Amino acid sequence: MKYIKFALSSIAVLSLVASILFFTVGPSLFDSQMNAVVGDPGVDPTAETLRFHETLIIGDLHADTALWSRSIVERANRGHVDVARMLEGNFALQMFTTVTKSPRGQNLHENSTDALDNISLLALAQRWPAATRDSLTERALYQAARIKSAALSSPSLQLVTNRNELENVVELRKQGRPIIGALLGTEGSHALDGKLENIDRLFDAGFRMMSLQHFFDNKLGGSLHGETKRGLTQFGEQAVDRMISKGIMIDVAHSSEAVVRDVLARSNKPLIVSHTGFKGHCDTERNISDETMGMVAEAGGLIGVGYWGAAVCDQSVGAIVASLRYGIDTFGIEHIALGSDWDGAVHTPIDAANIARLTQAMLDAEFSETEIRAVMGGNMLRFLLDHLPRA
Questions:
Q1: Which of 264, 134, 137 is nearest to 200 (CA)?
Q2: CB-based burial of residue 202 (10 Å sphere; 0-12 exposed, 13-18 middle, 19+ buried)?
Q3: Structural domain count of the chain
Q4: Do 319 and 330 touch, CB atoms closer than 8 A?
Q5: Whole-angstrom distance between the N-terminal and C-terminal Cα of the chain?
Q6: Residue 187 placed within a domain
Q7: Per-residue confidence (pLDDT) for residue 269, from 0 to 100
Q8: All residues at 6 or more sequence positions from 31 whose CB lies less than 8 Å from its CB, including other chains
Q9: Is residue 51 included in any domain, yes or no?
Q10: Is the residue at 10 inside a domain?
Q11: What is the pLDDT of residue 10?
């Protein structure tokens, strides 16, 4: 009996220790491992390059920073993005996307809608509010609230929900004030919890871009990495119509090609592919065909080039530059932008502080100044000015 009591006491102590580690060390450990800076970062920018870099509008279409339990404002020793590092990199615009569900065993080939959810475990470890346990909408709203809180606490971050606010950010930067415009988007419309009225809730909370799918099929239609590869469902058609009527920009990153084509046929507004590569440059299951991507471009769309291996086929700044070059030459300079997928559980060769290395690599690859200004953020700024609602 003495040994049984000792064993039970030992198990209780071990369980307590494991629980403490799960809630204290676990989140930062997950973050450090999943959002590492790994690969070839290219060469240090020259003084001349840095002077040119300071004249650029720099913007990025996709970062999942709000998912992680670290400061969005103060410089962190892990991950890819925070205000301190964005200021160091001279950022003007960042789309912060909210991740609400991710299937256990996530892969590029086929994921089940019913798979266990990674975000539920991460939310538990990071002690998110109780409302986020059963509602994906609440998870999106919680992450949005983190961005808003950061904007309130930092004079260098301003939430942008309309053209007037965006124009204000541009004007302040012209006056020499270091300021970054923060926008909100979803990573998949399972964040609607299957209810059209949640489009209005998210819009009212400041969301101005919504992606339709993530790594699994949902009520709106098929994912590029799901089981069915189907197009828009009837609910998906209704959701797309409502997003368009609200002035919400639609992101088809991760959507099946059938969904992309269905949305193109249905929408009179250009689409965004917020973080991707090009099939003709990097033939992986992460990238849709050049034919479908060409249809997005022909309809006036904007394509954000990612920084991780599955998108550009190598973890190097050189691979990002090669993808940008392919995108410009194949689809036209006005359609190419940056879509890092920073803090999206990917490894990238640079973080926000080191974005000038990308400028240096493009100059070394003989990109023109016009091309660099366009892809680094000029195209994103123009697209937002064209498609954000007025105040």
A1: 137
A2: buried
A3: 1
A4: no
A5: 73
A6: yes
A7: 97
A8: 68, 69, 70, 78, 79
A9: yes
A10: no
A11: 45
d(CA 317, CA 320): 5
Q: What is the pLDDT of residue 189?
A: 98
The answer to the question of residue 79 being in a domain is: yes
Record the pTM: 0.93
Q: What is the pLDDT of residues 19-28, one digit of tens each?
A: 444 556 578 8
pLDDT at 27: 81
Burial of 7 (0-12, 13-18, 19+ CB in 10 A): exposed
Torsion, Cα of 261, 266, 268, 271 (10° steps): -40
Supply the pLDDT for residue 4.
57
- The rounded average pLDDT for each run of 10 residues, N- to C-terminus, in the chain (391 residues) is 51 41 69 96 98 98 98 97 98 98 96 95 96 97 98 98 98 97 98 98 98 98 98 98 97 98 97 98 98 98 98 98 98 98 98 98 98 98 97 85
Distance separating alpha carbons of residues 115 and 119, to the nearest angstrom: 12
Domain span at residue 103 reads 35-387
- HEC profile for the chain? CHHHHHHHHHHHHHHHHHHHHHHHCHHHHHHHHHCCECCECCCCCCHHHHHHHCCCCEEEEEECHHHCCCCCCCCCCCCCCCHHHHHHCCEEEEEEEEECCCECCCCCCCCCCCCCEHHHHHHHHCCCCHHHCCCHHHHHHHHHHHHHHHHHHCCCEEECCCHHHHHHHHHHHHCCCCCEEEEEEEECHHHHCCCCHHHHHHHHCCEEEEECCCCCCECCECECCCCCCCCECHHHHHHHHHHHHHCCEEECCCECHHHHHHHHHHCCCCCEEEEECCCCCCCCCCCCCHHHHHHHHHCCCEEEECCCHHHHCCCEHHHHHHHHHHHHHHHCHHHEEECCCECCCCCECCCHHHCHHHHHHHHHCCCCHHHHHHHHHHHHHHHHHHHCCCC
pLDDT of residue 13: 39
Tokens representing 249 are 């920009």
Dihedral sign (CA 155, 157, 160, 164): positive
Give me the CATH number covering residue 350.
3.20.20.140
Contact between 96 and 185 under an 8 Å Cβ cutoff? The reply is yes
Other beta carbons less than 10 A from residue 110's beta carbon: 15
